[in-house]
Amino acid sequence: MNWKRIFKIFLYVILGLTIVLFALYGYAYYMFNYKFVPEKKYTHDVEYIDPETALLSEGFEVCNENYILQYYNPERATYSKGKNGLRKFILSNYKNKNYTDSGYLNIRFVINCKGEAGRYVIHENDLDLNPSTFNKDLVDQLFQLTTELKTWNPNYLFDDYRDSYMYISYRIEHGEIIEIIP
Questions:
Q1: pTM over 0.85
Q2: Cβ(143)–Cβ(107) under 8 Å?
Q3: HSE of 18 in the Cβ direction (CA atoms, 13 Å)?
Q4: Contact by Cβ (8 Å): 117, 166
């Protein structure tokens, strides 16, 4: 058999295998990086925070409006001084002014890819998780303290810092903070 012909067949086989491998690599890259990225905002999801109605959203910018993650991904969003630092700051600055409220005060917000917080939403529930209303001064005080937590570690996923939803839930019994979640 002619060596030129064998060489041509060999080159075509190598070229074909290279194209197949690139196609498989491209498909795998798409599946791992882009398949589950939403193409539009899911405004009816439980975690969605509407920037038009959220508190302190003016001037706050996210890096990708269509791709805001949950805080609990593998390298999740956290307070820069850790959970104990967060707890220490809140408990040392909170003053119980004879409040009688009991329940959960939940403050949800967004941490952008730069570690800045904004777009706050407040939810108030009794200890049975039914909607409730707390003393306005207590809510204002905990909201103010929460917004003073300025430095956050953003979510890190797919080799980049990402925007993420976050929440802090205060369990309150007779005006005293019993637990801070997460």
A1: no
A2: yes
A3: 6
A4: yes
The SS3 of residue 150 is coil
The CA-to-CA distance between both ends of the chain, in Å, stands at: 73
| Tally of CA atoms within 13 A in the half-sphere of 56 that contains its CB | 18
Read off the pLDDT of residues 65-98 as tens digits, 9 standing for 90 and up: 877 877 676 677 777 888 889 999 999 999 999 9
DSSP states along 17-57: HHHHHHHHHHHHHHHHHTTTS-SS--TTSTT---TTTSBT-
Q: What are phi and psi of 16, to 5 degrees?
A: -60, -45
How far is residue 180's CA from residue 44's CA, in Å, rounded to a whole number?
Answer: 27
Which residue, 174, 107, 176, is CA-closest to 143? 107
More confident site: 65 or 169: 169
- Neighbouring CB atoms inside 10 A of 157's CB total 16
